[in-house]
Structures are given as structure tokens and as C-alpha cells.
Amino acid sequence: MGKEVTCGALTRADEGRKITLHGWVNSRRDHGGVLFLDIRDRWGRTQTVFNPDNTEAFRTADAVRSEWVVAITGTVRLRPAGTENPRMSTGEVELAAETIAVLNAAEPLPFEISDDSLPDESIRLMYRYLDLRRPRMLHNLELRHKTVKFIRDFLSERDFLEVETPVLMKSTPEGARDYLVPSRVHAGEFYALPQSPQQLKQLLMVAGVERYFQIARCFRDEDLRADRQPEFTQLDLEMSFVNQEDILRLAEDLFTQLTETVTTKRIQTKPFPRLSFQESLDRYGTDKPDMRFGLEIHDVTSRMAHSGFKVFSSAAATGGTIRGISVPGASTMTRKQIDELTGMAQSFGAKGLVWIAVEDLDQGPDGYRSPIAKFLSDEELSSLTEALGAGNGDLLLVVADQRRVALDVLGRLRSHLGGALGLIDPEVMAYAWVVEPPLFEWNEDEDRWDASHHPFTAPMPGQEELLRSRPEEVKAEAYDIVCNGYELGSGSIRIHRREVQTDAFRLMKYTDEEIEARFGHLLRAFEYGAPPHGGIAPGIDRWVMLLADEPNIREVIAFPKNQAGVDLMLGAPAPVDERQLRDLHLLPRQPVKPQS
Q1: What is the C-alpha separation between 69 and 128, in angstroms, rounded?
Q2: pLDDT tens digits along 446-494
Q3: Mean pLDDT over residues 340-344, rounded?
Q4: Residue 2 pLDDT > 60
Q5: How many CA atoms lie within 13 A of 197 on its CB side?
Q6: Burial class of 596 by CB neighbour count within 10 A (0 to 12, 13 to 18, 19+)
Q7: CA pair distance 161, 178, nearest whole angstrom
Q8: pTM, rounded to two decimals
């Protein structure tokens, strides 16, 4: 028999009803001979009461401990006036227990099942099945479920087909390292786990599916961080006979409606702002800006190029740049706090950090506090203040360096200050589009061009001919959706003509033999009526992480790996026996003998 009622469902309307609750013992309290057990399941908690007059039930209840699994039968009654608990959905009622059955006892737990007191993450991951009992973790799993269900319903209503693609694929390296799976049947040959279903979804467009999506599992063997796992889930989406505007409009509707349906968060701007790749770098120092606050970066090179302050003039004279931000109300920062910012800037790669506190503009040069103020003329101080949009009480932070370094350092300082100064509203989702990135990046180590996005991305219309003459000028017909400092998804219009795709591969110094071996299947498909097509692939883990206000994606994945890529609960990766290796035509690894 299934559960009659959940532990989070009872209300005043259930008074007098006889029910059975199933769940875990959340807490146990003995109040002068009357015993209280709070019973918990996924839906909530209910207080149950045992009276010593019911000898058998009271004796059993007195023996149970935290996290034992029990079934309790009794009658719902109102709590005595003044004892209601508004923090519980069932806080107006309690269950007057008549019988209790212990379905399973529990050993003492390695940590308390509570959102208020968390052990080290390694302990949580080792006992993940216990960690998932916490209300916060159950909420995250429910939010993830609602997110995926909304996506499926939204796209199904718009005539998309959900199509599953293989997990065992051919290795066609596209950036990160592949996870390889040796074949037992075909000695010395390997499958690869997909980094994404990129080529397969393009082949589905050639097949005439026209509107495809998949909640796709993807795998990348790369270094991990807070927003990255070796295996992850993305919404994979592709459409035929569309342009960039069609895809952005569809994706924006999806992101907007989902956010407003499954959360109470506010979307900062509708429609989403659009920034070119270059504009994003210039204003925010990154291609995934957090736009919930200001602190925008300004270029003051032309104003400071001939300054008497050598750090500025030397940077300008050697092809560098001078960039700065104005931090509102931060002129009262202590020297220690400013020194910490300087140390942070240096750790990010800057030679140093110039700071100027604007205390009182009416006092002219005397209204500034800075170790470099004496090197700047009155006009330079005024011009710098104007260019950075500063006023009384603000702090100017300036970096003079090569353009890449200056923007990166100020972008990272900006992100730090946004959080440290309380400028960020956690209830806001600041979605934006970053468009028109370069199609290629120069790889100095290998003396060739690399695809900035992936090698199947189309150049902007009319720029195909530049692939052979001036590839550095080619922009990609690509777009990233960013939010709150994270890239949530990338997409592009794809190349759908064989000759253009071959030109792109040759530019990346693939030989004709390599092109055929790795991508021949795709190029052949383009010869049989490939339609124009494009798509986008938002990361579901990262998206839910932001919707749930979690610091990393491990908090929204049921069974994640740690930052070393280890599953502490299952003990994976782990050695296998030699017979398994031999079956796969692999040689056992021999221990290294110490040198004599």
C-alpha cells in the first residue's frame, strides 16, 4: 500500500481524520512524559504526539532515534492554542499517535540532516544519499525537475521533436579532451563520449527533422571548477531555415517564461540587452558580464597619454592602454583595504593599481587623496574624474598595461567589488546576449588558427571570402547568453555548405586526410541537400545553479564529482582487474621499479 498522506499536507481541514504517516524521524522531544516525534518526508514535517497511557506505542516511540524510518497511525487534531508553529506548513495540527511501526533503524549519522549546520563537502559527497535528505537539496532537485519539465513542454508546444543521440561516438576532438571507451570487439579501437551532440544535431537537420531538442548528457575531460563537471547536462536545440534573430527570439522567450514560472526572481531587462563581443570586453572586462550593477570600465588612454605620471605616459607610448572604474562611495576605504585591492590586481596580472579618492571636488587638487596626485596636473585630475563619471566620495581605480591585461584585471576587480560592496541584488536575473565574436583565434604555440566557438560556426553573412585572405577580420554568426557573470549557453548559425566547411578546416591546418577521417561523414551529408540551420545549447546545471542561488553546480546535481573529478561515494575512478583490461586489448600498467 502506498503512502496515504504526505508529511507536508495536513491542515486544519484534516481535523478528526485518521491517517498513517510514513517517513524519517526528524527530531525527538520528551516533554514531561509526553513524547513528540517530528516525522519528515520529501514534502515536509508533521508533529506526532505519544501519550504514556498508550503503553506499547509509547515504549516503541521512546526507543527510536534520529533518521529511523517509521510508520505512525493516529488521528489529526489541532494543536493547543499558543503552540502552533508558523514555520511548518503543518504547524496548526499534530497527529495523536495510536500505533508506530519501525520500518528500519539507523546507525548514528556522520552529520546532522540540517540546512543550518553543514560538514565539509567531502563528507557530504561521501554520504550523498544523506545529504540529499536536507530540505535545501530536495528543493534543488525539485527545481531542476520543474526546469526540465518546463523546457520539454515549451518546446513540444512549438513543434520540436525530442530525439536521443548516441553516447558512444567517434572521437572528433573539438577543444576539450575526449573521454575514450575501448572496444572489446574491435581491438585497438575506441569510442568517445560526446562533448556535445553537435555534429549529430546538424545531421538531424540534414535528415529533415527541422526542429530538434534533447536534454543531453555531455562529457569533457578538462580541469574542474565551481561551474564545471566532467559530465554535465545541456539543452541541445537546433532549427532549420532560421536566422540568428529567430533563435534569439525563441531562446529569450524560453528563458523569460521559465524564470518567471519556476522562481520568484525578477528579470532585470526585457528584451535582453545585446552587446557585441568587443563591447562586452571594453565595458566589463569579460565576455560574460554581471550586469546587475554598474562599475563599468572606461578608456582614458587619450586623456592620459601625455601625462606627467610616467606609468600612464609610458603605457600609452608602448601601445598599451589606460582604463579605469569609479567605485561609488568608496573614498573612505582605508589604506589597508586599498592595499588589499592592489595585491588582488597584481595577483590577476597587473603591475600595479593606481587609486585616487575623490573627497571634495570644490577644493580642486586638494580635494583628492592619492599617492600619485602630485604627479597629475589640475586638468588631468579633472579630466580623469569626468571620464570615469566620478563625484565626491568615489574611488577611482586605474590600470595602465597591455589592453588584454588591463581589461581582465579591472573586470575581475569589478566582480569582486560588486559582491564586497553589496551592489548585487540576488533576486535579479540579468540576462544578456553577447554577439559577433571573432570566428578564429590565433594559436601561437601551434602556428595556426583555432575556432573561437567550434569549427562548425558560420562566418557573418558576406564574410565567407575573408576566410582565405583575412581570417583575423571574420566575425562569427554566434551568440552567447550570459547571466549574473556566467555564460549559460552558446549557439550559432552553422556552416551548411561543404566548400565553406572545408575552407574552415584547412585554415585550422587540418590536412585533407585528417578532414576526411574526422569529419568526412558530415561533409558528405552536406552534399545531399543540407538546409541552413542553427541552434543553441544552454547548460542546465549552471542555469539551475543560478535559479537556486547556489555557489556551484555540485549543489544542483544529485551525484556529482568533487573538484578532483572523484566520486567519493562510489569510489570512482577505481582500478579494474587485469582480466577486464585484457578483454579490452589493453596492457596492465606495470609498477615503476625504483632505480638502484
Answers
A1: 18
A2: 888 889 889 999 999 988 888 888 989 999 999 999 999 999 999 999 9
A3: 96
A4: no
A5: 30
A6: exposed
A7: 28
A8: 0.92
Do residues 199 and 456 lie in contact, with contact meaning Cβ atoms separated by under 8 Å? yes
Does the CA dihedral 504-522-164-171 come out positive or negative?
negative
Q: Identify the CA nearest to 40 among candidates 68, 74, 1.
A: 68
Burial 102-134 (b: 16+ CB within 10 A, else e): eeeeeeeeeeebeeeeeeebeebbbbbebbbbb
Q: What integer pLDDT is reported at residue 21 of this predicted model?
A: 97
Q: Give the C-alpha separation, 92 to 86, whole Å.
A: 8
Question: What was the pLDDT predicted at 1?
Answer: 44
User: Which neighbouring-strand residues pair with 504?
Assistant: none
Q: Coil, strand, or helix at residue 375? A: helix
With a cut of 60, say whether residue 528 has pLDDT above it.
yes
Buried b (16+ CB within 10 A) or exposed e, 350-363: beebbbbbbeeeee
Closest CA to 196 of 532, 454, 509, 457: 454
Does 3 score more than 90 pLDDT?
no
- Residue 155 identity: L
Q: How many CA atoms lie within 13 A of 362 on its CB side?
A: 0
Running DSSP on this structure, what letter comes out for residue 251? H
- 3-state secondary structure (DSSP) of residue 479: strand
Residue 110 is given by DSSP the state S
The C-alpha cell that represents 135 in the structure block = 530540505
Burial of 490 (0-12, 13-18, 19+ CB in 10 A): buried
Beta-carbon contacts of 445 under 8 Å, excluding residues fewer than 6 positions away, are none
User: Residue holding cell 581491438?
Assistant: 187
* Residue 27 CB neighbours (<10 A): 14
**CA contacts within 13 A on the Cβ side of 63:** 12
261-265 LR contacts (CB < 8 Å, sep 24+)? 261/150, 262/143, 262/146, 262/147, 262/150, 262/547, 263/143, 263/547, 264/427, 265/427, 265/428, 265/429, 265/547
The alpha carbon torsion through 539, 437, 238, 433 (nearest 10 deg) reads: 60
Q: Do strands 161-162 and 180-182 pair parallel, antiparallel, or not at all (unpaired)? A: unpaired
